[in-house]
Amino acid sequence: MKTLSHSLALVAALLGSTKAGLRFPCSTLTTQRLDPAAQPGSLPSAHLHMIVGGNSFNATMEGDVGARATCTTCQMAEDFSNYWVAHMYFRDPKNGSYTRVMPSPVQPLLGGSNGAKGGLTVYYTQFDLNKDNLKQQPIKAFPPGFRMTVGAPTVTDKPHAGLSYQCMTGGNRGALVSDFPKTKCTGGIFTTHHFPPCWDGKNLDSPNHQTHMYNTVNSEYFNNAPACPSTHPVRVPQVTFEITWDTQKFASLWDSAKDGNPFVWSFGGSNGAGTHADYMFGWKGDSLQKAMDKSECFYDGCGSIKKQAMSEANKCTVKDFVKEDIDGWQKFMPGMGPSSMKAKKPFTA
């Protein structure tokens, strides 16, 4: 599949005929300044994240987090992983104040995803959306305790291939770009994060949360990534997040001709190159491996994964660990003000 359609209706038709990999919605679990991958133990972390997945999420996560979780906001009921991204904000060009841009509920393109609250769409692909190629490219599921990140807030030039933006017009996706769209998007801003597909087979993490992986993704959309190098020989599922941010609510507050881009990430980045995402594996037992071993499956759980109604998934919550006001209009984004806490105290349950 060389490209994704710019029309969600056509995407639905295409996905209905393909049969390789998993695709499912996850509602928002919580929105807090927590980051157990990049800043384990920090309470709060440096900037705000939107988090989905299992309820074992907290500031410090080690070992088999899936075994400790008791519920998940994801449709796949055996997926207690956590997925998180920096939160998007709108900066008012008139007075410089900030307010959160909310994620739109995942579109119910395929059966059973109706009712998601905010959140994101997750993909696990074996090869691409058309085929699995399991005989030539077997897939090894992640082990308990595994985590990784993609992208970095320090990037300022251009993000790695697979980290992208699209300007939604109604239900249609615009051209894929590497920065915030420069015009108003009536259907919201659509963001995509493709994770690296090659693992060293030894380390569950690395100091920068990326060098235990090797990113051979060299194109956009859902093409198969090139072969893994000898240093990182283990082919893992190609994990991808998709989110639609509801930017239309702010259309009357800015002028695209004179104000420039008013959207920023919660780490203070108005340059879209700094977009990044985090993943922490938490599938129960061997459920993900069974799915990745299943040929010609798509979305249905690959014949082995139990699904839950999103109304049930939406009941899953975690407590507010940070206890800070993140709603409404604010002079500074959380963690970005002059009086923000510089030294983070260790997390205690």
Defining traits:
4 helices, globular, mainly beta, signal, disordered N terminus, DUF1996
Mean pLDDT: 87
- Biggest sheet, spatial arrangement of strands: 1-8-16-12-10-11
What kind of assembly state do the chains in view correspond to? Answer: single chain
Binned, the helix content reads under 10%
* SS-derived structural category: mainly beta
Largest beta-sheet details: 6 strands, antiparallel
Number of domains: 1
Shape: globular
Number of strands: 19
Q: Helices, strands, pairings?
A:
Blueprint: H1 8-17, E1 22-26, E2 28-32, E3 42-43, E4 49-53, H2 65-68, E5 82-86, E6 88-91, E7 98-100, E8 120-125, E9 147-151, E10 163-169, E11 172-177, E12 188-194, E13 198-199, E14 213-214, E15 234-235, E16 238-245, E17 263-265, E18 276-280, H3 287-293, H4 310-313, E19 345-346
Q: What can you see in these coordinates?
A:
The protein is mainly beta and 349 residues long. The protein has one domain. It is 7% helix and 24% strand. It has helices at 8-17, 65-68, 287-293, 310-313, and strands at residues 22-26, 28-32, 42-43, 49-53, 82-86, 88-91, 98-100, 120-125, 147-151, 163-169, 172-177, 188-194, 198-199, 213-214, 234-235, 238-245, 263-265, 276-280, 345-346. Strands 1-8-16-12-10-11 form a six-stranded antiparallel beta sheet, with no helix packed on it. A five-stranded antiparallel beta sheet has the order 2-4-5-18-9, with no helix packed on it. A three-stranded antiparallel beta sheet has the order 7-6-17, with no helix packed on it. The chain is globular, with a radius of gyration of 19 Å. Residues 1-17 and 341-349 have low confidence and may be disordered.
